[in-house]
Specification:
Two copies of one chain form a homodimer.
Chain A: H1 13-22, E1 27-28, H2 29-37, H3 48-60, E2 64-69, E3 77-82, H4 84-95, H5 107-113, H6 120-148, H7 155-183
Antiparallel strand pairs in A: 1-3, 2-3
Helix pairs in contact in A: 2-3, 6-7
The structure holds a DNA duplex (28 and 28 nucleotides).
Chain lengths: 184, 184
DNA sequence: GTCGACATGTAACCAGTTACATGATTAA
DNA sequence: TTAATCATGTAACTGGTTACATGTCGAC
């Protein structure tokens, strides 16, 4: 029964994210975390303990291989390389429609929704803080944009960055709007 | 040691959401789900099994009380009522700053980020679908807006609705933009 | 001699989802 | 007679987080 076995047990999103990073270059768990911080981490996050737990599973299921790299001045490290099977699985997942429509679960919006149960000041505080965060995020994204705009290097990352920018702007507009109203 | 004991074990967001609904009216688990679908569910979702598991916990910790309501033509039901302690806990949570800044975890954006690893067509398909979803959502929200705009009933729900509208519009603008670019 | 970068993991826990299970009443 | 609504839950699982644990090397 399990001879040709379409070993098609769906991977977790984190596993696909890791495969995505590995598809660019062989690297260790530690390196994956640095890489994530500088890019993919803006759209998908994972705790380091989870990265380390995901990697051996990828190897076990044939989506990656690992080898030990000995180092002199730094601790030795396990580096992981994506396999053909891994690439296939990743691409299949990438090409199938996105399952859930980013279901709405926001503690912030929940508090706003229940705004009538708190003091006006507390609510205004939440919204002001949201605005500040959006503004800080916007500044961060603009700085990144200045670096990568036009550069071909990561066009797709640039697309997601532009979503980030659009969303920050939307937050700022919305918070301004709401604050004006609440203060009137 | 545990006499005055500030029984301040943080509740889960779902528990606060339930308390929020209970603070408007006494109701059963089943009713909570209907109510959620018509409002708070747009900003916070919970599986029904979780609602049922959360309710006894609220009672156990003194945040709610429950009593059995006998019915003739329908099954009997347990109805839950928020206590003073529950209201206090809810209000405290509501007034403290929102903890996490809605950390970025979007399978959709992850796929866009890795757009270079799939066919152009697949990526365009994802974006088109995103646009359609945004448009459908927008229509839904506009319909709700027509019903509740101006009505005082749920001003705070209206605020969150306006965020929903703003976000849908941002999605549509972004997808249009990206689609134009990808097709050129 | 203390701090940060390098490097890898385990253990305990938790929130939440899916599937399963039951059973009455009522409207089409 | 078939399906929907009312009504409540349990069990198994999963994806993920936090805290703990360890140790070297190089820079300040």
């Amino acid at each position: 029964m399990a001879t040709t076995s379409a070993n098609t047990t769906r991977l977790s999103t984190t596993e696909y994210a890791v495969l995505g990073m590995l598809s660019a270059s062989e690297c260790s768990g530690y390196e994956l975390q640095q890489i994530a911080r500088a890019g993919i981490g803006y759209v998908w996050t994972a705790a380091k303990s989870q990265v380390y737990s995901v990697l051996p599973r990828l190897v076990r299921d044939g989506h990656a291989t690992s080898r030990l790299v000995r180092q002199e001045r730094n601790p030795d490290k396990q580096v992981y390389r994506i396999t053909a099977k891994g690439r296939r699985a990743l691409r299949e997942w990438l090409e199938e429609p996105v399952e859930d429509a980013d279901s709405a679960r926001s503690p912030f919006l929940l508090k706003v929704f229940l705004g009538g149960l708190m003091s006006r000041d507390a609510l205004v505080g939440h919204i002001e803080r949201r605005r500040e965060q959006a503004e800080a995020e916007l500044a961060e994204y603009l700085a990144i944009e200045r670096e990568i705009a036009g550069v071909e290097r990561n066009y797709y990352g640039y697309l997601t960055l532009r979503w980030g920018l659009a969303q920050c702007e939307a937050w700022i507009r919305w918070t301004d709007n709401v604050l004006e109203e609440l203060r009137a």
